[in-house]
Every structure is written in structure tokens, then in C-alpha cells.
Amino acid sequence: MLELLIAAALKDALKELYNLDIEIDKGLVQKTRKEFEGDFTIVVFPYVKAARKAPDAVANEIGAKLQEKLNAFTTADGVHGSISAFNVVKGFLNLSVSKDFWLDFLSQNIDNENFGKNTTIDEQPTLIEFSSPNTNKPLHLGHVRNNLLGNSVALILEACGKHPVKVNLVNDRGIHICKSMLAWQKFGNDESPESSGMKGDHLVGKYYVEFDKHYKAEMRQLQEQGMSEDEAAKKAPLMLEAQEMLRKWESGDEEVRGLWNKMNGWVYAGFDQTYTRMGIKFDKTYYESNTYLLGKSIVEEGLQKGVFYRREDGSVWVDLTSENLDEKLLLRSDGTSVYMTQDLGTAQLRYEEFHPQKMIYVVGNEQNYHFDVLKLVLGKKLEKEFGQHIYHLSYGMVELPNGKMKSREGTVVDADDLMDEMFLQAKESTEALGKHDFTPEEATKLYEMIGLGALKYFILKVDPKKNMLFNPAESIDFNGNTAPFIQYTHARIKSLLRKAKENGISIEQSKDVSLLGDNEQALLKSLYAYPQVVEAAGEGYSPALIANYMFDLAKDFNGFYQSSPIFKEENEALRALRLRLSQMVAKVLKSGMALLGIDVPEKM
Questions:
Q1: How many other CB atoms are there within 10 angstroms of residue 35's CB atom?
Q2: With a threshold of 0.85, does the pTM exceed it?
Q3: Cα separation of 98 and 83, whole Å?
């Protein structure tokens, strides 16, 4: 990377010029803003005091020294060049790299399938937990953001040389599961996915809503008889039956366990279809029914160490008030687990299984407190080293234009329904362009690619920490910051390359640097930034950096295409150069979109 060479040369220059011996981070070598001449910029103000000279004088001295030191360099990937010129603007040193560098960069990387990726993979894995669905309902829009974010971060980490292991923790037990089971038992008339024609997860979700409807009716009746709302909520017959079903489940009742296995089986079959359509795969799936008791031994360990304490009622707590939190329940008075108990045990289990360098939990920001506690309990109170390496990838909520969603009231947008809608939106928008030269099978594949791409990109282009509003119609716009715009750009370039091949037009690269105009050089600079963007996205766990870079690159190419005609260009060498540039853009667009889990078409 050229920034590393410049940073190293800057360190030496400062030592020689001003006897300054300081470390230089590559981040101090920035990309020159478009309104100024140059490729890389260094801010010299931090060195002015030691130099005892005016900022412009310091910048000119450093510029001359860097030009001298970098008059013939070779980067780690074999690209040659030099600093051809520099200029100073109010203490900002702008360095111009020789045209040889940009031509050599294109030549070295156009056939490099791993451009932008670190091919040395860590042996020690990084665990990423995401999805974590409940088996009482289908995956919904909130799960979509979770799944897309977790999957993309895993792909980006792999591109950065990490060894991601994708894990899922299915919440398959508890009172919410029993609610669906009880409602089906009472009102289902043996309905099944086969008899109803519904996906299994949708069928079970239907009975979760059915439970809530009857439960609320019972509550209203009890309130009309004089009970308070809280009392009615606790004493409604359906809730009492659901709680009894949970007790039977925990005691291993054969009939309850049989119903649980049957209905969960329906849900898993439905989940598999949804995951497959979204392009999601897991390396390992954990089930809460197998893990919810694991943390009890860790709680006992904490009691023995004296970092947890037991109250008079038998419940176990940890005091985190010195860490500006509160006292946290770890085990109920009847000895049953809470979510924290389970997560303590699951973290220990995963450490023993994988010995990961980091455990990343992709969970919404409403659980920030929970993960603050988890890290403190494991890392500080229990002094487990792996507790120091837990990272909560906290993300904001997704809302629709018509407001929030509620599972039990049936107002959630199911992931399957959303993907169906995106398919239809893609079909309508594509056909509106007036191009119908596809077979029915090709058209179906294209609409699915565009629809899913639009959904994924619209969600991933937003910084994970931010809440977002998802608008299906806006996401499919072929002219905005959307996947269809980027996909169309890729297809356009592929069309250009096919036309060149059909007409026998060569794309062999000339070594004539005079062919490299401002437009070509600007596009090469955009391409050069790709590896740094991937690295930054991996460090920040932010697919949004790649998504927005993809849009900028597609936009840059379209501007280049308008201002620098390809097939109208009479100079064959320049035409070949522009085609090669286009080919490189297509390669990077395909690579970057793949890191978002998005496919790009060869034609549209």
C-alpha cells in the first residue's frame, strides 16, 4: 500500500529535517480532496513547532525530501512509481504520484481475483452470533437486518484475513413457545403445513397471534368482573395453562415434548427456506433448550470466588454498582436460569469449542445493558480472559413508513412476504425500462437478484448503529443510492466488454503514460481505494462503508462513461485503456457487492 511507503518516508524525513523521532500512522496520509491537485495529502501543522518555521515552509521542505526519497519506489504488490510533483496549500502538503504508478497499478491488478482481500487467513477463529430467532414466529424485518448484517460482517472479516465462524442460537423454549403450542392445541384442529399450504414458521406464528387474541379477550372479561389489569394478566386461564405447559416441558412430560418437537420441526423447515433465499448459512447452530442450564456451574464458580452472592430467598446476584450499573440477577430463587445465566454458559462453551480470538454478538441496541453486564461478569468479576474479547455489534431498529411492528398482534412484516414484495417491485421496475429480451426463467432469476439486492443494500448502506426506515419502493430506484443502480452499472460494463469482444476490439494495455488523462486517473484513484475501504469496514464491523463506496464507484464510472466515450474514441490505445478501466470497475463492483451478500447480473 502506497500510504505505508509515504508514512515510512515521512518518518525518516522528519528525523533528518527536524530531528523528530515519531511514529507515523498510515491514517495521516490522506486522499487529496477533489478540488485540489494531488493524490495524497499530509497535514504538516503538528511538525511546525519543532521545525520553528511557517507551515508552508515546513510543507515545502517535507515535500522536497519525500520526492527525493520516493523518486523510484515499488509497493508490496509490485507496483512501481514515484512522486512526480507536490504543491502546498496553507499547510497542507499535496503529493502527486507519477502516471507510471497508476498504469502499473491497473496492469498488476486487473487480473487479480483477490484484489482488495487479504489471502492470509488467521488460524484462530472469530465467532459471530447472529439471527437468534424464536420458534414461535417466522423471521421478520428486524431479523432481516440482523441476518444481513451478521452475514456481511463475516464475509468482510474473511476478506480481511480473519477466520469467521457463523453461529446461531435458536430460542426454542420458554413461555412464548408454549403460547403457540397451547393455541394450536386448543384452536388448531390438527392443522399442519401440509393441510394448510402454509410454511411451518408462518403456521406456528399464526397461533402465537391466536393466543394473544384469546388471552386479551379473557383479560377483558376478568377486568369487567372487577380485576385490575395486572391481576387479570396473571390470572387469565390461558396464561395459567401456558405456564403449566412450560412446567411440564421442563419436567420432561412426553406429550408436551412431543408437541414441542413437532411444531419446532415445522418452524425449522420454514426457517431453512427463508435462510436459503437470503443466502444465509451457519457453521453451527445452538439451541436454547440445550444451553439454558449451562451457566449454573459458572454461577456456582462465582459464589465460591465470592464475586456473586446469594440472597435470603436463594436467588444469586452480582453487584455491579461500582461499575456504574446495578445489581444483576443470575439465578432465580427456585434455581431456574435467566438469560444471563444461559449467556454465561454459552460463552464458556463456545470458548472451549473454538478458542476464538473474539466473540461478536449481533444483537439490537435494546440489549446494550445486557452485554455490558455479560462482559463485566465474565471478564472482570470471573477474570476469564475470553470475557475481555466479547464484542456487542449493536444495531438500531428498523421501522416501516407506517410505524413499528408487533409480533403478537400480527403487525410484523414477515421476511418471506418482504422478499416476495421486493421480487414484484423489481419485476415492475425492470419491465418499466422496456427491456424484455429474457426467457421467463432468466427474467425470474433477474427479478429475484434485483429484488433481494435492493433489500440487502438498502439495509446495509445505513451505519449499523443508526435506526432506519425501510421503504421498499425507494430501495428499488434505478437512479439512486441503491443496489439496482450499482447492478445496472455492472451490467452496462459487461455489455461494453461483450461488444468489444464481438467486434474484435483489443483491450491490451499500452505503456504510453500520455494516454492517462484526468478522467482516467480519477477513476483509477477510486479503484485504488477499494482495499482500504474493505480494511476499514472489517475494523469497524460496518458493511455501510463498502455499500457507500460501491455507490460512489458506480457513480464515478457513469460520470467517466459520459465524459470519456469508449467506442467513439479513434485512438485505439486510449480506447483499450478505457475498456480495461471499465473491466476493473466491473471486477471491483462484483467483489464489493459480494461482501454485502449481493449478486450482480451480467445483463439487464
A1: 6
A2: yes
A3: 6
